[in-house]
């Protein structure tokens, strides 16, 4: 069975976006050690699952790089097949994408296929559904050295306590720290 990983940028107070999804708090000047770490993590994945809003913002940005410019990370983002979870889209909006309306059934089917890791970056609605339905195998929380006080929480009002096991913790030169958790099942 494939491993489904969340890679999320978060604040130290547990938000993955500002109240309106703002990301201006992110540490944009990643140190070489963080770039290498994230690069190695993505190399193991051969499928991406994205929420519609995130796909609408990120995919065109990845594709908009200047002609002839090559970046291994951006090339991977563009070339990797993507499943966009949406209840409103009926047709794939970009090349190399498919649409899924039922996140639970889709993720279970994707995890049962042969292949490499599956990775998601969100958005918030998708992450909340994945956590609530216990569909993630690893949560890679990249904690940025900033508190914003309010916003889109990683874990919104759960019905019951959710337990996780710490798999690893790593600090990077730019001040970001990665905490990797697995759900206790």
What does this structure look like?
Helices cover 28% and strands 30% of the residues. With 185 residues, the protein is of the alpha/beta class. The strands form 2 sheets. Strands 5-4-3-6-1-7-10-9 form an 8-stranded mixed sheet. The longest helix has 12 residues, at 32-43. The protein is globular and about 35 Å long. The mean pLDDT is 92.
Short description:
The chain is an alpha/beta fold and 185 residues long. Helices cover 28% and strands 30% of the residues. It starts with a strand and ends with a strand.
Structural topology:
Blueprint (H helix, E strand, L loop, with lengths): L3 E8 L3 E3 L14 H12 L1 E7 H12 L8 H8 L2 E4 L11 E4 L2 H10 L4 E6 L1 H9 L5 E7 L7 E2 L10 E8 L5 E7 L2
Parallel strand pairs: 1-6, 1-7, 3-4, 3-6, 4-5
Antiparallel strand pairs: 2-8, 7-10, 9-10
